[in-house]
Design goal:
The protein has one domain: Rossmann fold, CATH 3.40.50.150. Helix content is 29%, strand content 19%. It contains three helices and four strands. Helix 2 links the parallel strand 1 and strand 2.
C-alpha cells in the first residue's frame, strides 16, 4: 500500500506539505500510520478534502520560509509550465 511506503519515509512528528494533494486520501492514511505527523495540501481546493488545504496559485505558496520538514510532489510537476518555480518554492518552505 502506498501509504505504508510513504509513512516509512517520514520521520516522527514531521510537518509535511503535499503540493497538489488531490483529495488527501493518501495523506490521511499516512498520518494514521505515523504518530505525530501532520500533512497540509495546496494547489486546488476540492470538495470533501481529507486534510487541511490552502489554495496555491502555482508560483508562491501561502506559507512562510522553513514551515515544513519536507515537501511532496506526487503528480503535479509535469502539469505545470514552470516546474522550477514550484521546486524553488518547495525549497523555500521546506527546511
Amino acid at each position: 500500500m502506498p501509504s505504508n511506503q510513504l509513512a516509512a519515509l517520514i520521520p516522527p512528528s514531521a510537518r509535511i506539505l503535499d503540493v497538489d494533494v488531490g483529495t488527501g486520501t493518501l495523506d490521511l492514511l499516512t498520518t494514521r500510520k505515523r504518530s505525530g505527523v501532520s500533512m497540509v495540501g495546496d494547489v486546488l481546493v476540492r470538495p470533501n478534502m481529507r486534510i487541511p488545504v490552502c489554495p496555491f496559485d502555482g508560483t508562491r505558496t501561502p506559507f512562510p520560509n522553513a514551515s515544513f520538514d519536507a515537501v511532496i510532489f506526487g503528480d503535479v510537476l509535469h502539469h505545470t509550465a514552470h516546474p522550477y518555480v514550484m521546486l524553488r518554492e518547495a525549497t523555500r518552505v521546506g527546511e
